[in-house]
Amino acid sequence: MNEDNMTVGHLIGRARSALLTGLDTELEPFGLTGAQFAVLKNVADGIAETAADLCRTMHYDTGSMTRMLDRLEEKAVLRRERCTEDRRVVYLRITESGNELLPQLRAAAVKVISRHLAGFAPADVDALKQFLERMIANGQPERSAGNPEKRESRDAGQPERSGGNPEKRESRDAGQQQVKS
């Protein structure tokens, strides 16, 4: 691995750390952390229904996740609900107070991201999103560097250099509006 790749990884790590620190600070008045917000957001958005789903999505171990869910239950923003068909399954549900709080939490997250993107032109933000999406796609298990067909599908996600297809851009932008934080 050359030094340039390590520098990119280091910068991505620092950016993530700065975002999480900013989010923790912004959420402090609500008595929540960035990690707790991520749990609530994943449950509210239907990405995760159980603690196991959250562990897979957020790359947490089960013990840490159990403690975090305990704290969120203590704060009355999330509750556990045992499945009636299979008692081994415990679903996670956002409480009424959690649902009332979510818009403020999402606004805080958007504020942090906006602060970190200050000075970026809209085209820069679009390019950044496309680069990050491509990195994520390249890291998926089905990707294979030795398979030319898979390499081509990776290359298809490259940022458009000239304005691009307005219909594709509108479709992509509409999807991004739904995922603000």
Structural account:
The chain has 181 residues and is mainly α. It folds into two domains: 118 residues, Arc Repressor Mutant, subunit A, CATH 1.10.10.10; 62 residues, no CATH class. Helices cover 64% and strands 6% of the residues. It contains eight helices and two strands; from the N terminus they run H-H-H-H-E-E-H-H-H-H. Strands 1-2 form a two-stranded antiparallel ribbon. Strand 1 and strand 2 form a beta hairpin. Helix 1 crosses helix 5, helix 2 packs across helix 5 and helix 3 crosses helix 4. The longest helix is centred in the first third of the chain and has 25 residues. The C terminus is likely disordered.
Topology:
Elements: H1 3-27, H2 34-44, H3 51-58, H4 62-74, E1 78-82, E2 90-94, H5 96-116, H6 122-138, H7 148-155, H8 166-178
Antiparallel strand pairs: 1-2
